[in-house]
Amino acid sequence: MTIMKAVLLQGHGGFDQLEYRDDVPIPKPREGDVLVRVGACGVNNTDINTRTAWYSRVVTEGTTAAAAAAGIAGADPGDSGWTGTALRFPRIQGADACGRIVAAGGGVDPARIGERVLIEPVFRTDPLHALYFGSEVDGAFAEFARVPSAHAHRIDSALTDVELASFPCAYGAAENMIARAAVTAGETVLVTGASGGVGSAAVQLARRRGATVIAVAARAKAAAVGALGASRVIDRGEFADGTAPGVAALGAESVDVVIDVVGGAQFPGLLDVLRRGGRYAVAGAIAGPVVPLDLRTVYLKDLTLLGCTVLGPDVFSHLVGYIERGEIKPVVASVHPLAAIVAAQQEFLTKQHTGKIVLVP
Hints:
Elements: E1 3-9, E2 18-25, E3 33-42, H1 45-52, H2 65-70, E4 98-104, E5 116-119, E6 122-126, E7 129-132, E8 144-148, E9 152-154, H3 161-164, H4 168-180, E10 188-191, H5 197-208, E11 212-217, H6 222-227, E12 232-235, H7 244-250, E13 255-260, H8 267-273, E14 274-282, H9 295-300, E15 304-307, H10 315-324, E16 332-337, H11 341-350, E17 356-360
Parallel strand pairs: 10-11, 10-13, 11-12, 13-14, 14-15, 16-17
Antiparallel strand pairs: 1-2, 3-4, 3-8, 3-17, 4-5, 5-9, 6-7
């Protein structure tokens, strides 16, 4: 077989730019690569943001359903990728993948063929630079994907492909923030967007380290988020505009670490609730990337602000270990065939789910 089914992103814009095809050439593994038959792949906010050119610096609004459906007018395609450069089209998106190795390139032990693997979606080129699976290189919205052998992590687990595909991007991002913020047992951690993929992962991963977790989520999802390990769930409306209600709900200087994927107008309130010497880690800005910041808050409270994208070298291997030992669990909201990618993204944009939406090629 030389061709496969895949979803091609033909350019920046709305859902019409996603084209499901059954005649896409199967990539050949190059030196140091493996070819993985994709068993399942997860849907992420970054898929939508990449399609709409949200990463362009001229965009200041958060991720919205309207923009996701039609694209973002005025976005500059010249800096629309994660690395600040233009994307090349067509592109196969998809940052999450679980599957099995079916072929190996030069320099890769042929004994790896047949291994069940999780794909680490950030392909490091050095400690602070990377290519991103499904953005700068083709990803997992296909029957097969070519990846560096070093980023295809063998996994031994009884979980299904669908369950395993819920982990890589969201849990990798969450564990990276938690590791960078050096969360330890006994600390109090505030997690925003706690019902989403990264947020629900962060709740589990912070709790795994022995932290007390306070989650921000919609009131309707409080029970589900609490079941993941949050000791308290605060209605996200209390933090929506960054003013007094959110701070009053917790108390000023009441948490050690903030794990944030939301950004937007709530940002000042998040810094207010941090204790002196606290740490703020961010890996997303679904409510808006441009935020109000009073530098006096940062330096007078001796805060540390951490931007987190490139995974530390041990983050993903540790994550695989947590999965194999059953220390964290998958949270799958729904499953769709790959051909129904538009319906899956539309469901994602309603924000009515908890956990991950997964596609099966």
